[in-house]
TrEMBL record:
Organism: Geodermatophilus arenarius
Record Pfam families: MST
Origin superkingdom: Bacteria
InterPro entries: DinB/YfiT-like (IPR034660), MST-like (IPR007061)
Protein name per UniProt: DinB family protein
Length: 173
């Protein structure tokens, strides 16, 4: 009798997938919580005057990061993905004097659509699927990309915590 191939063993794969996605969902929910109940102007407030970093910019940036790592991955169709702000500088550039509720609504709608597209990718492909994400020279596994997304969110959620504390004193996970 040969040992099971853990790459295709459904209970283990399902458990691993649930764990990685669970951590990614937790980080997404943390970002939403950090931005909850803030006005468009507050969401567009810079972390410090010399930086373009804002909470709304982070929402736009993280949507672009998730899409950027998985557009076209595993041969999936490009129409799975919503349009995101591709220019990194433009992702973060939000003017508190002109930002509107519609700008905020659009950023969150795109962010949610990207998260749904990522869930679709994970539902269609095994974690060990390897491919070259759009615009990259190297091959990465889906597992590596998802863990990287958790790291990206965790880092920016630390920034979000500091911005939120400066805005109204709210801190915590």
């Amino acid at each position: 009798m040969t040992p099971p191939d853990h790459r295709t063993d459904p209970p283990l794969v399902a458990e691993e997938t649930a764990t990685v996605l669970g951590f990614l969902e937790y980080q997404r929910q943390t970002l939403e919580w950090k931005c909850a109940e803030l006005t468009p102007r507050q969401l567009a407030t810079r972390a410090v005057p010399t930086s373009e970093l804002t909470l709304l910019g982070m929402v736009r940036h993280l949507a672009a990061v998730e899409a950027g790592w998985l557009v076209g991955f595993g041969g999936l169709p490009f129409d799975l993905w919503p349009d995101v702000v591709r220019d990194r500088d433009e992702q973060f550039r939000v003017d508190p004097a002109t930002v509107t509720a519609a700008d905020v609504k659009a950023a969150w709608a795109t962010w949610r659509a990207v998260a749904e597209a990522v869930r679709s990718v994970v539902g269609r492909l095994p974690l060990d699927t390897a491919d070259r994400p759009w615009g990259r020279d190297d091959e990465f596994s889906l597992r590596w990309i998802l863990v990287h997304l958790v790291e990206e969110y965790a880092r920016h959620n630390g920034h979000a915590d500091l911005i939120r504390e400066a805005l109204d004193g709210v801190t915590g996970e």
